[in-house]
Amino acid sequence: MGLAENLETVRSRMTAACARAGRSVADVTLMAVTKGQSPESVAQAADLGLTLFGENRVQEAKIKIGQCPRQLHWQMIGHLQSNKCRDAVHFFEMIQSVDSLELARELDNAAAKAAKRTPVLLEVNMAGEATKFGYKPEILLEELPALNSLNRLEIHGLMAIAPWTAEPERVRPVFRALRELKRRCDDVLGAPMAHLSMGMSGDFEVAIEEGSTLIRIGTALFGPRGSKSPQHFEPKHLTTG
Fold first, then answer.
1. pTM for this structure?
2. Backbone phi, then psi, for 72, in 5-degree steps?
3. What's 70's domain CATH number?
């Protein structure tokens, strides 16, 4: 199927998941994950009504965003290195992958130099996977007051990547635990955070049922990465002269 058919299928599945959970589909935002996708693919998705896009790598985003329609909204969802904070603050409206107080301070400094405020989500490694980044829940709760004291960062919620499984029901406890952690964070902050970013192509329906407000969908929209389709994005070499 093409992108239009895939998008219709994803939206139908979102609607059904919200109905099962007694939620409004308007309360769940669909992000198109465009790692490896061309600006032409992004433009096609925008023509179909998508406005929020997520990138995993700062370097790819720097090249791609300028080649895409200007009205789109971009967020950083991949692991962020400290030396990329200045660019991340410049190119992204939100950074979903803040996974340490050290990184948060670097972002705060970069945002101050740019004279702007930067919305962020705090990434949590709920399953304790050695191959994934993210806060341990107990460390997050310990550092949350210090994170909240940073003047240029706005904490809008939590983000997590569930373990991969062919059976989405198996990761329901992970999403449920993140929702409960958000409640505990809300208590510490004294106000509810807006977002729970959880759920990807293989498990977004379970994530919605457990309270996700933002799902990050790549493969279910664009097809498997690394295919030889003409939509695959290969960054162009930039020259100066």
1. 0.92
2. -80, 160
3. 3.20.20.10
